[in-house]
Amino acid sequence: MVVIPAGVAHKRESASPDLLVIGSYPRGQSPDHCRAEPGVHDGAVGRIARVPLPAADPVTGGAGPLLECWRGTR
Hints:
This protein is an all-alpha fold. It has helices at 41-49, 65-71.
């Protein structure tokens, strides 16, 4: 399992037949796809900084290890 945090670019270059990719966003949020174009970077960095942490670990729920890492408590 791979969890990609806000602000990280990703692109599938190739895949095996058994690869499964699932995108998930908190209620009320949607993807903000940006391209590397002049004048886009600073605005994107500001939006990334304003993305709130989830209320619970998106994999295990509650106060799981991923949320602890994001909050810097681990």
